[in-house]
Design brief:
single chain, 7 helices, 56% helix, EF-hand-dom_pair, mainly alpha, Recoverin, domain 1, 2 domains, EF_hand_dom
Length: 134
């Protein structure tokens, strides 16, 4: 009848078609597929406000961000290199250019540039607050 190799390829093709179809349905509805292993941006911002915003002003300034990075162990700092230097993070995340990343303004207007991928969100969470459950 059919070889295992053929059946395996047929199964993979069917999975791809279903995945594309579901993704298109989500796009058509204005929704995105939810990945339970991907931290939500709102969750990350609540955790950042508690764990990184030292002066509790609702913003992460350059010094707070650099201080948080400096306190990380070498392995976590290495993982965080995915996000780039503090200068690069500020460039991507500080939309209004005031020298701080505000949770209420900047993080609502930088979804395409700051923590834009699930991989970067996971790296950020695992480096700074892996156990945060807010």
């Amino acid at each position: 009848m059919f070889s295992r190799k053929f059946l395996f390829r047929l199964l993979l093709a069917a999975i791809c078609v279903v995945s594309v179809s579901l993704a298109q349905e989500c796009a058509d509805e204005g929704k995105t597929a939810i990945d339970p292993s991907c931290p939500d941006r709102d969750h990350l911002m609540r955790c950042a406000a508690v764990h990184l915003d030292e002066n509790k002003n609702g913003k992460l300034d350059r010094e707070e961000l650099q201080g948080a990075i400096d306190r990380l162990n070498w392995l976590a700092r290495g993982v965080l290199q995915i996000l780039g230097s503090v200068d690069k993070m500020m460039q991507k995340c500080d939309v209004d250019g005031d020298g701080a990343i505000s949770i209420n303004y900047d993080m609502q207007h930088n979804k395409e540039t700051c923590l834009a991928t699930c991989f970067k969100k996971r790296a950020f969470k695992s480096a700074f607050f892996p156990d945060c459950d807010l």
